[in-house]
């Protein structure tokens, strides 16, 4: 395989956009085109307001866009020109049919593979960047082969993405490892080498690991399952702490200082959100069930169940503390994104908590520094969340700043760990709240002693106050 000079990426989302921007930054001699079916998304990538908020992304895009980085809806041209094509399309959980609610829906991956097969006029390396079930590369290869034109050959690689939202640019620039899986043949090894030559521009060779295709696909699901498992483990212990008087932060510190365990991903919270953890574990559970590995499936399912329990436990705690009724009360939710430094709300715990409080009759005010009002209403009125969108529209107001959102409220619920929430003037906020004034810190980011000295009633995760 000759040197790669032209890359195309199908899917201009949270992964395709940042990943290809960093490739363009680090490989100035390579032309990178990110192509998407959505005209609106591509127009946003070509505008001053990018479709996703990600620290550092604007600067990288501004440096490369129009130089060697292009965002386009001309998918045919992008495929024709490229020697290497990333498939970075969405792989959501199926909502209908066999495996509904658990299996990954591969219709977009299949669509992308068919587009490549129908368009390509010369050899292509097709790289699966989307998170997929084990053996998905085989399906892609089958589609490509069944539609192969004379003289065109394909190599399919697996190159899962490990970036986390909110830190995507840093994660891409300083990746712990890059994982590439490919066919164990001379053609397969050449394709792996071609992709390595791209990452070689900035990732040390020892951090680029190569495996067989199925190990690579499974490693991505495994990494997310392990990370989510740590959160569910500490969250399960947060319930024990609340019942006994232990403090989950102290427990996490004591446990995490064991170098075999490590301190990361032990932050007890209102529950994990985001587009990946739940979807990928459900996918793993489904795969295990299909392989008749029922005990293994049940083991990983517990990680999800514990997360559901945590979200529901926290919501119940709020209602109980407010004299067992929030009907007619103003409650301010600070943070709607699933974590700080992103505007992404997919599977955000805030959706669950807001919905519970709405169903209990509360009047909900929401403020998030990066989530648009339309997105909040879209999430809360989605048919999978509520059967009464009118109730949501009647009982939810979105605010543009934290102070006005809190004014006149009976309680504040911190759902996202945005830095600005730690620096608010809580004295001022307290003066303008209904009394007794409550704060429920679902992220353990506030100074609870200080809040209590102001007069707040404070409740948090994993600690009795
Ligand atoms: P996304 O929904 O933000 O973006 C996917 C994009 O693909 C959409 O814009 C959609 O229009 C486009 N698309 C669908 N079919 C297409 C086609 N045939 N041709 C061109 N474009 C097409 O999704 P995302 O968050 O970027 O995730 C993409 C994949 O990466 C998923 O498999 C996900 O599990 C995985 N992943 C996501 C993250 C994350 O943090 N979001 C991290 C690691 C891995
Ligand atoms: C995750 C993986 O980290 C990343 O490697 C993968 O590529 C995509 O999925 P992401 O979902 O973007 O990334 O963010 P992450 O930082 O993992 O947080 C996920 C959720 O877990 C968030 O809701 C976060 O607040 C929560 N979390 C994280 C905790 O509750 N406690 C922790 O200790 C860490």
What does this protein look like?
- The structure is a single chain.
- This protein is an alpha/beta fold and 465 residues long.
- The protein has 19 helices and 14 strands.
- The protein has helices at residues 16-26, 39-45, 57-64, 75-81, 107-119, 136-146, 168-173, 186-199, 213-244, 248-256, 277-290, 294-321, 349-359, 373-380, 389-395, 402-406, 419-422, 426-431, 448-454; strands at residues 6-10, 31-35, 69-72, 84-87, 124-128, 154-158, 178-182, 208-212, 330-334, 363-367, 396-398, 411-414, 438-441, 457-460.
- The chain has a 6-stranded parallel sheet, sandwiched between helices.
- The N and C termini lie far apart (64 Å).
- The mean pLDDT is 97.
- The structure holds nicotinamide-adenine-dinucleotide and uridine-5'-diphosphate-xylopyranose (UDX).
Keyphrases for this structure?
alpha/beta, 6-stranded parallel β-sheet, 19 helices, globular, binds uridine-5'-diphosphate-xylopyranose, NAD binding, UDP-Glc/GDP-Man_DH_C, NAD, UDP-glucose 6-dehydrogenase, UDP-glucose 6-dehydrogenase activity
Mind sketching the topology for me?
Elements: E1 6-10, H1 16-26, E2 31-35, H2 39-45, H3 57-64, E3 69-72, H4 75-81, E4 84-87, H5 107-119, E5 124-128, H6 136-146, E6 154-158, H7 168-173, E7 178-182, H8 186-199, E8 208-212, H9 213-244, H10 248-256, H11 277-290, H12 294-321, E9 330-334, H13 349-359, E10 363-367, H14 373-380, H15 389-395, E11 396-398, H16 402-406, E12 411-414, H17 419-422, H18 426-431, E13 438-441, H19 448-454, E14 457-460
Parallel strand pairs: 1-2, 1-4, 2-3, 4-5, 5-6, 7-8, 9-10, 9-12, 10-11, 12-13, 13-14
Helix pairs in contact: 1-3, 5-6, 9-11, 9-12, 11-12, 12-13
EC number: 1.1.1.22
Catalytic activity: UDP-alpha-D-glucose + 2 NAD(+) + H2O = UDP-alpha-D-glucuronate + 2 NADH + 3 H(+)
Function: Involved in the biosynthesis of glycosaminoglycans; hyaluronan, chondroitin sulfate, and heparan sulfate.
């Amino acid at each position: 395989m000759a040197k790669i000079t032209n890359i195309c990426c199908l899917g201009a989302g949270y992964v395709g956009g940042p990943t290809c921007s960093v490739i363009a930054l680090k490989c100035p001699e390579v032309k990178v085109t990110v192509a998407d079916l959505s005209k609106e998304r591509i127009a946003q990538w070509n505008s001053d307001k990018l479709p996703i908020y990600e620290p550092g992304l604007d600067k990288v895009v501004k440096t490369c866009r129009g130089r060697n980085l292009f965002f386009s809806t001309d998918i045919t041209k992008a495929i024709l020109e490229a020697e290497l094509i990333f498939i970075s399309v969405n792989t959501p959980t199926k909502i209908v049919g066999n495996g509904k609610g658990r299996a990954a829906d591969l219709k977009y991956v299949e669509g992308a593979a068919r587009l490549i097969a129908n368009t390509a006029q010369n050899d292509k390396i097709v790289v699966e960047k989307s998170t997929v079930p084990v053996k998905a590369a085989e399906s892609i290869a089958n589609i490509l082969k069944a539609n192969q034109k004379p003289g065109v050959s394909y190599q399919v690689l697996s190159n899962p993405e490990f970036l986390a939202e909110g830190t995507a640019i840093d994660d891409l620039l300083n990746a712990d490892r890059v994982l590439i899986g490919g066919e164990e043949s001379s053609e397969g090894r050449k394709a792996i080498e071609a992709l390595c030559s791209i990452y070689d521009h900035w990732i040390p060779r020892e951090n680029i690991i190569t495996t067989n295709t199925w190990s690579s696909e499974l490693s991505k699901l495994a990494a997310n399952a392990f990370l989510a498992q740590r959160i569910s483990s500490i969250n399960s212990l947060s319930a024990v702490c609340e019942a006994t008087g232990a403090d989950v932060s102290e427990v996490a510190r004591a446990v995490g200082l064991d170098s075999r365990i490590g301190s990361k991903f032990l932050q007890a919270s209102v529950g994990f959100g985001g587009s990946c953890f739940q979807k990928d574990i459900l996918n793993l559970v489904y795969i295990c069930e299909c392989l008749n590995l029922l005990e293994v499936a049940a083991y990983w399912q517990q990680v999800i169940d514990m997360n559901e329990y945590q979200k529901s436990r926290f919501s119940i705690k709020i209602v109980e503390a407010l004299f067992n009724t929030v009907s007619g009360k103003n409650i301010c939710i600070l943070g709607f994104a699933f974590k700080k430094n992103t505007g992404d709300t997919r599977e955000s715990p805030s959706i669950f908590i807001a919905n519970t409080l709405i169903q209990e009759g509360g009047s909900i005010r929401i403020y998030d520094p990066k989530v648009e009002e339309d997105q909040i209403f879209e999430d809360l009125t989605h048919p999978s969340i509520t059967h009464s969108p009118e109730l949501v529209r009647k009982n939810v107001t979105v605010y543009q700043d934290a102070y006005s959102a809190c004014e006149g409220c009976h309680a504040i619920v911190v759902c996202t760990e945005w830095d600005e929430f730690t620096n608010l003037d809580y004295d001022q906020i307290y003066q303008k709240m209904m009394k007794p004034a409550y704060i429920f810190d679902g992220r353990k980011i506030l100074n609870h002693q200080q809040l209590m000295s102001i007069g707040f009633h404070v409740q948090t995760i994993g600690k009795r106050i």
